[in-house]
């Protein structure tokens, strides 16, 4: 299959590329620590519901103001279905895992498997991986097995199940979304956020969560950071990169984010990690690189 070509960026766009890369490398990498601070006093599903409904609402109104077409009922329905898988099955489970004691860097390392699982999910839809992708998949699985020996996962095995399953569900939602009737523009992201945010609220109620009226200032500031920087700014930067640079560069955040998250977790979050993560992290990074090369 031919790879997507990207038009040559203008001078202004070339200047913007480093800032966009900073957004997806550092900002997205830092969201795992921000989630850890948010869930200290804000319930994980309700907190992410506020995040997605706020960011999705702002993005939707901005796109409509720019003249984007109003989504059809079918697109709203599809967006809600995919958003539920992405944000309840993916983001929600990661947040619950962090709320029960899984470190942000450890969680980010497990989530780095997303591009690897996406290849296997695509195979279930008939697009089976190439030989080099199978090598990457094998290395990634070995990395996850080694990661399961990390201290946080040994003491909280439920957390390991949550963060191991989350990237699988995120991959299912991501791959499936390309086969559904959805807007081709940023409106797609807005629908995912709004639909997923509503489902997060419902799941939060079912889990016994309530509005965080007594949450700490730190948790509220972390949530505000996640809404503005983690969702609106970083997602916009990623969309810009997809339009401007090669797919390999645009998706390179997948093997940078875990290193950023581990570093910030140790430096600012006071987290400790054992030796297994230092073996698992490079294995998963190599797996993601191999998957990326198999797609070019």
Describe what this molecule looks like in 3D.
Helices cover 75% and strands 0% of the residues. The protein contains 13 helices and no strands. The chain is globular and about 50 Å long. Mean pLDDT is 87; it is low at 1-6. It is mainly alpha-helical and 296 residues long. The protein has one domain (11-294). It has helices at 11-38, 44-65, 73-99, 104-111, 114-124, 131-147, 151-155, 157-177, 187-206, 217-244, 247-250, 257-267, 275-294.
Structure, briefly:
The protein is mainly α.
Topology of this protein?
Layout: H1 11-38, H2 44-65, H3 73-99, H4 104-111, H5 114-124, H6 131-147, H7 151-155, H8 157-177, H9 187-206, H10 217-244, H11 247-250, H12 257-267, H13 275-294
Helix pairs in contact: 1-4, 1-10, 1-12, 2-3, 2-9, 2-10, 3-8, 3-9, 4-12, 5-6, 5-8, 6-13
Characteristic key phrases:
296 residues, mainly alpha, 75% helix, globular, disordered N terminus
């Amino acid at each position: 299959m031919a790879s997507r070509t990207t038009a040559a960026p203008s001078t202004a766009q070339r200047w913007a590329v480093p800032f966009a890369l900073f957004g997806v490398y550092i900002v997205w990498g830092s969201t795992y620590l921000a989630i850890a601070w948010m869930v200290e006093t804000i319930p994980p599903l309700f907190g992410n519901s506020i995040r997605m409904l706020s960011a999705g609402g702002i993005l939707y109104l901005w796109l409509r103001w720019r003249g984007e077409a109003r989504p059809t009922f079918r697109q709203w329905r599809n967006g809600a279905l995919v958003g539920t898988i992405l944000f309840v099955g993916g983001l929600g489970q990661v947040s619950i895992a962090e709320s029960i004691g899984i470190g942000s860097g450890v969680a980010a390392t497990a989530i780095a498997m997303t591009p690897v699982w996406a290849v296997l999910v695509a195979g279930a839809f008939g697009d089976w991986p190439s030989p080099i992708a199978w090598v990457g998949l094998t290395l990634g699985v070995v990395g996850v097995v080694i990661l399961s020996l990390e201290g946080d996962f040994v003491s909280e095995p439920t957390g390991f199940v949550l963060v191991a399953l989350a990237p699988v569900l995120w991959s299912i939602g991501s791959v499936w979304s390309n086969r559904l009737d959805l807007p081709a523009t940023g409106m797609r992201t807005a629908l995912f956020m709004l639909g997923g945010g509503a489902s997060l609220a419902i799941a939060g109620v079912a889990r016994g969560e309530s509005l965080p009226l007594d949450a700490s200032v730190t948790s509220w500031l972390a949530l505000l950071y996640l809404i503005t920087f983690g969702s609106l700014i970083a997602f916009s930067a990623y969309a810009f990169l997809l339009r401007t640079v090669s797919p390999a560069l645009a998706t390179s955040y997948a093997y940078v984010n875990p290193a950023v998250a581990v570093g910030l977790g140790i430096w600012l979050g006071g987290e400790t990690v054992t030796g297994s993560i230092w073996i698992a992290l490079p294995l998963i990074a190599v797996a993601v690189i191999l998957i990326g090369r198999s797609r070019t």
